[in-house]
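REVIEWER CHECKLIST
Item 1: Sequence provided? yes
Item 2: Single chain? yes
Item 3: Sequence as submitted:
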Amino acid sequence: MIQPPKRALQFLRWFCREDYLDEVEGDLIEIYERQYCNTPSAAKRRFIWTVIRHFRPEFIKAFSQNPNLTAMFNNNLKIAWRHLVKQKMYSVIKIGGFALGIATCLMITLFVKDELRYDQHYKDKDQIFRLVFEFEGEGAWVWFPAPTAEVLVSDFPEIEKSGRLLNAESFGAGTSEIQINDNSQIYHESGFTYVDHDLLEILEIDFVQGDSRSALKQPHSMVISERKAKKFFPNSDPIGQTIVMKNNARGGPFTITGVVQLEEASHFQYDFFMTLAGVELWPGEQDFWNATNYHTYFKVNSNTNHQQLEEKLDLITTKYFAPTWVAAGDQGVEEASKKVSYVMQPIPAIHLYNGDIADNLNHGDIRFVWIFSAVALFILLIAAINFVNLSTAKSANRALEVGLRKIVGSSRSTLINQFLTESIVFSFIAFAVALCLVGILLPYFNALAGKDLILPFAAWWFLPTLFGISLLLGVLAGFYPAIYLSSFKPIHTLKGNLSKGSKSSGLRSMLVVFQFATSIILIIATFIIQRQMDFILNKDLGFDKNQVLIIQGTNTLGGQSISFKNELLNLTGVENVSMSDYLPVAGTMRDNNAFYKEGMRGKENPILGQIWRVDADYIHTMGMNLIDGRNFNNDMISDSLSLIINKKMAEAMGFENPVGQRIQHFNKLKPVIGVIDNFHFESMKDEIRPLCLAIGSNSATTSVKMKTEDISGTITSIESIWHRFAPHQEIRYSFLDDRFALMYQDVQRMGTILTACSVLAIVVACLGLFALSAFMVEQRTKEISIRLVLGASLNNIFRLLTANFLKLITLSILIAAPMAYYVMDRWLADYIYQTKLGWDVFVISSGLVILVAISTISYQSLKAGLMRPAENLRS
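Item 4: Structure as written out by the authors:
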C-alpha cells in the first residue's frame, strides 16, 4: 500500500478536530494516492503542504472547544496587521532585521549540515578505521609500508579486512593526461589513485556495472566513477574499454572492469581507481619496511574493544619496524620505538577531525564549523534583540491602547495573547522574506564557501521545521515585549506617565552591550585574518612567485620536451624555463627521505627531509638565492650525483662549510655543491624543513619565468608553440602566485565569510541602537521639551542623548577586546610564521564601531533637538 508521509499524518491527527479528521484525512490520502503514481516526490511535498495549510483555527481542536477563541484569534490578526501597516518604517526595520538574521542563520546552517554529513553514510561506520602513525616531536601521518595491510589481518584477529591506497599525488598519478581507446585526443583528468580490491569493499563502494568481486584482481585494470563513465562513454558500455594514462610515473593502458557510484559527502573523492595488483614501485618494495607510501584502511569485528586493539598495534613497531631499523644500522632504535604510537582514526572523523595529521587530502575543519555555528547563533540573537527593542521602543504609542483595554475589561493574559500574536505574525513574515533572501544570496554563498548547497524544499521535514522554528522564535522574541507592554497600569498610561519604561531600561542596555560586543569581536577577527593573509601573501618566501607561468601536462611531449623548452626560451618575453614536477606550493610532487652525514649512518638518527629532482635552470627560474657554492651544470657528469641543499639541511647536518661535504642518501654518498637560502614550500603553519635538490627528469610541469609587462602577448605566443607540439591537447596553465594563494583558500573563505557576517552584525546591531535611541527619545520627550524651553541648545540635547549610548559602546569594547585577543591569539598559534597581534587593530575596530554608533544615534538626537516643545508640553 502507498503510505503518505508518516510525520505529517501524525501532525494532522494531533491538531485536527475529531468531527473533521475523518473527512480531511480521507480526502488527503485519496489525492495523495492518485498523485503518487505520477510523481511520488511531488505528491509527498503537496501532502505536507496541504497538512500545514489546514493548521487554521477552524480545524484546530482547541478552537473548536471554545468558539470565542476563533473570533479572538481573527481579531488579534487584524490588529497585528493594522499596526504593521500603520507603522511602516518600524515594521520594515523590525521584519527586515529579523529576516537578515534568519537568512544568515539558514545559509550557515546549510553549510554546517553539509559538513557534518561527511562519511556518515557507511552502514558499518563504527567498524571502519584509517591507520595513523604518530611520532612524538615529528607529527602524525598516514603513510605506511606496503606490507602493513597484510600484517594487520594476519597478526590481529580483531581485524576482519584491510586495504591500501597508494599516495598517488606523490607519484604524479593524482592528475594525468589520458586517451580513450585509440582516440588521438588527449584529455586532462584528476582524481586518480591506486587501490586494493579489498579497499572498495571496506568503504562499501556500490558497483553500478561490473563484478565487484573481481573488478580489480587483474593487473592494469581500472574502476571508474559513474560520472566519468557518462562523460567518456555516453552511448556505449564502458566495461572492456581502455584508458591510456600519459603521466610519467606509471602510465600505460588500463582496462575498465567496473563502474561505481560514489557518495558526494565523502573524504574519498576519486574518479579513477587503478589496481595495485602487480604494482611494485621498485624490486622488493612490496616486502620493504623502510619506505612509507600507502594509506591503510581496515575493518574490525563488531565486538572489538577499540582501545585494547589500539594498544596492541604497538606490535607493528617491535616486530617489523624496529628490526628493519636495526638492520639498516640506525642507532637509538629502542628510544625511537618509545616515541611511536598508532591511532585508529574512525572514518567519520577524517573530514572534520583530522587535526595535524598529514595525508594530502582536502579537509573541513570542525573549528570552522563551530565558529560559523556560533556566528549564526549570535547574529540570530542580535536580530531577535532588535525585535525586542523595536517592540518596546514604540511602547508609548501602545500605552493608551493598553490602558483603555484594561479599563473595558481585558485581562493581562488577553493582552499577552494579542502581543504574542503580533510577534508570531511578524516572525512568519520575516521567515518568508528570509527564504527569498536565501534564494537570492545562496549562489554567492556557494561560490564563497566552495559548496553546492540548495534549500531542501523536497525534504519532508524542511517546511514543517521552518514552520515550527518561526513559531518558536515568534514566541521567544515576543515574550518579553508582551509581558512588558501588558504590565502598564491604566491610571499611569491614561495620564501619559511611562516612567516604568525608563526604570526597566537596564535589560535593554545589556542587550545592546551584547550586540555590540559580538559585532566588535567579529570585526577584530576579520581584521586579524585579513592581516595574516596579507602577511602570508607578501612575506619574503625565499623565491620569486611573480610572473612564473606553470604549464601542466608537458610530459605528453615525450622526446620533444627539450625542443619545446628551447622554443620557449627563444621568446623575447621569456627569461628562463625549467622542467620539474616539484614546486614550492602544496599539492605538487614530494619525496620524503632519510639523510645521514657521511660516516654517521648507524651512529646517529637520520635527518628527515625532502629531495627534489629538478633541472639546471630550476633555481634561476624560481628566483631562489644561491648563497654558497654553485648551481648544477649539465656539462658536468658528476653533477648527476651531486646535491644542492637549503640552509635548514646544512644546520640539521651540523655543517659549518657545507660545500664539499658529502651526504649519505640510501647507499650512496652525494657531494654538496651548493647551498640555497631557505624558502617556504609548504603552508606557513609548518616550519621550513630540510631539503635537497638533485638533477632529475620530471617533465609533467614546465615553469616559465617571464620578463615582460605584455603578459597576455607572451601567453598567446606560448599557446601557439604548444599547439604546434601538441595539436590534440588543450594547453593548461596557471600562475605560481595564484597556486600559492590557493594554499590558503580555506582561510580566505573564512575571512570573507566573517567579513560579511561582521558587516551584517554591525548593521543589525545599529538597527537595535536606533530602536533604543527612539525609545529613549519617547521616554524623555517632556524633559527634552522643558530643556529646550529653558534655553538648551541642539548641542546640549545631542550630548544628553548620546552620552549614555557611548558608555554602553565603551563597555562593549572593554568586554569584547580581551575575548577577541584570546580567540585570535589561539587562532594565530596554528601558524609558525604569523603577523603580530597589534594594538592598532583593536583601536581601529573600536573607532569604527563608535563612529557607526554615533552616526546611528545622530538621527534621533537631532530629531529630538529640533522638535517643537510647545506641542509636546500641550499633549
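Item 5: Key structural point noted by reviewer: The longest strand covers residues 252-261.
Item 6: Recommendation: ____
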